[in-house]
Design brief:
Elements (H helix, E strand, L loop, with lengths): L5 E2 L18 E2 L23 E3 L5 E3 L2 H10 L17 H13 L3 H9 L6 H10 L13 E8 L4 E7 L1 H9 L5 H7 L9 H10 L9 H8 L23 E6 L7 E5 L14 E5 L22 E4 L4 E3 L2 H11 L6 E8 L1 H13 L3 H6 L4 H4 L1
Parallel strand pairs: 1-9, 2-8
Antiparallel strand pairs: 3-4, 5-6, 5-12, 6-10, 7-8, 7-9, 10-11
Helix pairs in contact: 2-3
């Protein structure tokens, strides 16, 4: 913090003056947080009926008609075939179920098998999903970035790509996207386990009887990026949350402790005393204490090597030749091709990154001879 009113949640961030920010302050909750519904931090309305969750994670109202329809779809005609089990769910079980939902088409079955000590067979399903990778079309291609591909002519496979910091930032930005935003970009068709069914379930549940509000429904279907997480050359349109302003307080005692609280209409009413002044959050990607968005994750100017499996490393002549040696690819078999990456290619890269280990080859479709020529 300094006289220009900035703060950061990250260590070693630099102020406008060029010095590292080193004054510590305690972050407090907003004073009007008590006005929120206590104990109701979820998305569903309290007192709603029970829900029915199928093995492929379709969430439905717990109605008899839905239950009978599910049994009919599963070709279960005799109720004597069914038995009930009670399961205790803790943090470990939740992590297992999350992983199963991303990799398996039957995550509840896999989850129960794992609980019973069975081996993990989900990698087979992941490979099957990668084989069915299709292409996603974008609505516009307003921006493009160049990418040089190094291709094995005999294998019709991308060995690696040579890129600038813009393409590296694009790939790294995939790690910042909320899962709901990824599914929205892909039209709810990610092929990723059963999360498409979860996404569709939220779409189908009404705010009249089940979800608390349209705002919360939209939060699930189209969540925003955290403040300052968007890149300057963003090809995919995921909205970024705005960063709130904060208010600085001092306890006025000899030890002079500082406190920070989100700025609200009631922030000046505090047991800490009157607020000393507003503060704005620093963009952690800025080296000069800027509070506006933008910027990237990697330093430039720089060149990067991106493998077919999306491993990003610093490019050098030695590293590229060594990589070709590891792949046992003769230099005479290597061809170069410059391609353009726009919104459509970025969407397909995002999808391939989720389900394929040959993302560059899959996206740039080397069966198209125009790429190989």
């Amino acid at each position: 913090m300094d006289g220009r009113g900035i703060l950061s949640e990250f260590a070693n961030v630099r102020c406008h003056c060029g010095q590292v920010m080193n004054q510590l302050a305690t972050m407090l909750e907003p004073v009007d947080a008590a006005s929120c519904d206590q104990g109701e931090g979820g998305f569903l309305k309290g007192g709603a009926d029970r829900f029915l969750v199928s093995d492929d994670l379709r969430v439905m109202p717990g109605l008899s008609s839905q239950c009978l329809m599910l049994l009919k779809n599963l070709s279960i005609m005799d109720a004597k075939e069914l038995e009930s089990q009670s399961m205790n769910i803790g943090p470990e079980e939740i992590l297992q179920l999350l992983r199963s939902s991303l990799l398996s088409k039957t995550p509840l079955t896999h989850w129960i098998w794992l609980k019973q000590g069975a081996s993990d067979l989900m990698e087979l399903e992941l490979n099957n999903m990668a084989e069915s990778l299709d292409k996603t079309s974008a609505t516009s291609d307003s921006k493009k970035m160049s990418l040089k591909l190094f291709i094995s002519k005999s294998r019709e496979q991308v060995l690696y790509a040579e890129s600038g910091e813009d393409f590296a930032d694009l790939l790294f930005s995939f790690l910042t996207f909320p899962l709901g935003s990824i599914l929205k970009l892909l039209g709810g068709k990610s092929l990723l386990g059963c999360v498409d069914n979860l996404y569709g379930s939220v779409k189908d549940l009404s705010t009249d009887n089940y979800l608390k509000s349209d705002e919360l429904k939209n939060m699930l279907l189209c969540p925003k990026l955290a403040p300052f997480f968007a890149c300057e050359n963003q090809l995919l349109h995921v909205e970024e949350s705005s960063s709130p302003q904060y208010l600085l307080y001092s306890n006025g005692k000899p030890n002079n402790k500082w406190f920070v609280r989100p700025l609200t209409t009631e922030s000046n009413v505090s047991s800490l005393g009157e607020g000393l002044g507003p503060l704005s959050m620093v963009n952690p990607k800025s080296s000069t204490g800027e509070t506006t968005g933008g910027g990237g994750y990697v330093k430039g100017p720089a060149k990067f090597m991106v493998t077919d499996a999306l491993v990003v490393t610093q490019l050098s002549p030695i590293s590229s030749i060594s990589f070709l040696g590891k792949l046992d690819v003769p230099i005479t078999d290597v061809d170069e091709k410059v391609v353009q990456v726009g919104e459509e290619e970025a969407l397909n890269l995002l999808k391939a990154a989720l389900i394929s280990e040959t993302a560059l080859t899959d996206v740039f479709n080397l069966t198209d001879k125009s790429v190989l020529e």
